[in-house]
Amino acid sequence: MTDLWWKSAVVYQIYPRSFADADGDGMGDLGGIIDHLDHLAELGVDVLWLSPIYKSPQDDNGYDISDYQDIDPLFGDLETFDKLLAGVHDRGMKLIMDLVVNHSSDEHPWFVESRSSKDNPKRDWYWWRPARPGMEPGTPGAEPTNWGSAFGGPAWQYDETTGEYYLHLFSPKQPDLNWENPEVREAVYAMMRWWLDRGVDGFRMDVINMISKVLPLTDGRATAGAAYADGSASYINGPRNHEFLREMYDKVFAGRTEMLTVGEMPGVTVDEAIKFTDQDRHEVDMVFQFDHVWADRGGDPWKVIPLQLTVLKGIFGRWQAGLAEVGWNSLYWNNHDQPRVVSRYGDDSPEHRVAAAKMLGTVLHLHRGTPYVYQGEELGMTNFPFRTIADFRDIEALGQFRQAVELEKKNPEDVLTVLRARGRDNARTPMQWDDSPNAGFSSGTPWLAVNPNYPEINAAAERADPDSVFHHYRKLIQLRHEEPAVVDGDFTMLLPADERLYAFTRRLGDTELLVIGNFSGDTVRAEIDDAIAWEDAELVLTNVAEPQGLTMAPWQAVVYRRTT
Ligand code: NOJ
After folding, report:
1. In this structure, are strands 260-264 and 202-205 parallel, antiparallel, or unpaired?
2. What letter would DSSP give residue 454?
3. Residue 563: is it exposed, middle or buried by C-beta count within 10 angstroms (0-12/13-18/19+)?
4. What is the rounded CA–CA span in Å between residue 550 and residue 540?
5. Dist. CA 63 → ligand 1 center (Å)
6. FRET label pair with 227: which of 76, 176, 442, 450, CA 20 to 30 Å apart?
7. Residue bearing the CA closest to ligand 1, atom 4
8. Angle 182-198/241-248 helices, nearest 10 degrees?
9. What is the pLDDT along the chain (564 residues), one digit of tens a residue?
10. pTM score > 0.85 for this model?
11. How many H-runs (helices) and E-runs (strands) does the chain carry?
């Protein structure tokens, strides 16, 4: 068996503002999480990851931090945090925090000082640059490079105080920290140690493959019709990324046991991920890659193309093979940035939603890696029926809509079609606890509308129904805890060319598991070698009442086990 505890663990992500509101202000809070810890213990998860709860102007819902060592009053205070941490530990779970240190808030005292004058000691803690040579500072096109920011508009903000620009890969209220400066790094490490000393068990690291920039900063690749260029070649996996993470390990984690570190890394390749997660290199335990959640856009973020199952299998197959010997995968369908998977890659119609949600969970959790469950995924929560742009609250949706419609002259309906399918607010609607008003999320007015399907889809109903998505997820988690082949078994993809069935085996010693998921509304026979023998094997888990061997009902999943 494995020596690394997180290989058999399942992580549950909480987006605090949408989880549960204990004080009735319409916004989730720490008290709400404390009230629902038993739901998570019953599900059986091992680790909770909290999206940011630090002091923040909330420009990007807390991913813009103005004090890394305090709790935003919206969520509570440090005393309540300690109570929550104790409640988590009492139930045998761990808690990891979100670490957002590619950027801070522009209201962080570090940035307030940095912007105050060119000779302030903290000037170099952020990325300041003069206007493009020969251009009038502050005029369109005078930005130091042509990069666009993730939320629309340029990646540089002109600051009149000193007549220079600062870099922000995300919103103008999220200035990028300058990791080249050793004082910045030491300040971050000290803050991390402070949280670990308080008892937290690790970190999920926000866009941590963007902290090292390629110097000098230069123009990126321009695309026809796009208002700004793509600068990512200058900041994805920059030249000092591995060095910085290794230094962080040495200065923060070395000597501490039972920690978990996971780096969010948009655009990371398999080869780089092997290095990031090689335990001998002391960088991070696992990374979040994005290939499988970018499978429905065909290289263009403004496209929504139907999922091609062979493409998805190609991606997972490559990651499973790539990290088989060295490194480790994280496994996720959902998080606070992604639409709901049952709507995205499944079928959220009343007829198929429950089966599809269970099938998607089964396929994901039976891969080799550490699965992450995002709040509400265990209920099969769905995308929200957004009508107009006025229904969105997310800074990304609003900023991208503005840029696409006003600057790039795209058709607003086309832009809305993409945002409805993929907008981040799909994941951020309040957690559906029961069928009382506001789904039991809040006694006040929720900050984002509750999905109208909460009378049918909610935790109370599902906990009481042994055939619910909730209980299926509970069984998946239990299976990982009890069956070593789920954790450590090798992975073999079957039927790679099939557009409807996702099939693979896992083998450890003499135990072999067969997993099949039907990604379609058709009845399909799985034509695998050895099919007849497999039908006699032990059926460990399925999602239909009357399974017919390897003849798969719509959206059916099966897990078989045999000893050879
Ligand atoms: C990735 C986070 O997951 C996302 O929610 C956030 O907007 C950006 N990083 C910027 O922090």
Report:
1. parallel
2. T
3. exposed
4. 14
5. 6
6. 176
7. 337
8. 40
9. 347 999 999 999 999 999 999 999 999 999 999 999 999 999 999 999 999 999 999 999 999 999 999 999 999 999 999 999 999 999 999 999 999 999 999 999 999 999 999 999 999 999 999 999 999 999 999 999 999 999 999 999 999 999 999 999 999 999 999 999 999 999 999 999 999 999 999 999 999 999 999 999 999 999 888 999 999 999 999 999 999 999 999 999 999 999 999 999 999 999 999 999 999 999 999 999 999 999 999 888 888 999 999 999 999 999 999 999 999 999 999 999 999 999 999 999 999 999 999 999 999 999 999 999 999 999 999 999 999 999 999 999 999 999 999 999 999 999 999 999 999 999 999 999 999 999 999 999 999 999 999 999 999 999 999 999 999 999 999 999 999 999 999 999 999 999 999 999 999 999 999 999 999 999 999 999 999 999 999 999 999 999 999 999 999 999 999 998
10. yes
11. 17, 20
User: 267 CA distance to ligand 1 centroid (A)?
Assistant: 14
Q: Which residues pair with 262 in a beta bridge?
A: 204, 286
Cβ of 207 less than 6 Å from ligand 1: yes
**d(C-alpha 165, C-alpha 159), whole Å:** 6
| CA pair distance 248, 268, nearest whole angstrom | 19
Instruction: Provide the token pair at 107.
Output: 């209201």
Q: Pinpoint the alpha helices (H) of 94-181.
A: 109-116
b/e per residue 437-469 (b: at least 16 CB within 10 A): ebbbbbeeebbbbbbebbeebbbebbbeeeebb
Q: How far is the CA of 107 from the centre of ligand 1 (A)?
A: 17
Give every CB contact of residue 551 below 8 A, 6+ residues apart in sequence. Answer: 523, 524, 525, 526
| Site to substitute for ligand 1 among 54, 64, 100, most atoms within 8 A of C-beta | 100
216 preceded by cis ω (within 30°)?
yes
**By C-alpha distance, which of 390, 440, 37, 213 is closest to 14?**
37
Q: Is 67 a catalytic residue?
A: no
Kindly state if the Cβ of 483 falls inside 6 Å of ligand 1.
Answer: no
| Best residue for ligand 1 mutational test, from 59, 337, 426 (most atoms within 8 Å of Cβ) | 337
Structure tokens given for 285:
């335990």
Which atom of ligand 1 lies at the shortest distance from residue 100's CA?
Answer: 11
Query: 284 near 245, Cβ under 8 Å?
Result: yes
Nearest ligand 1 atom, CA 335: 3
Q: For this structure, is 408 an active site residue?
A: no
Q: Which helix (H) or strand (E) holds 533?
A: helix 531-535
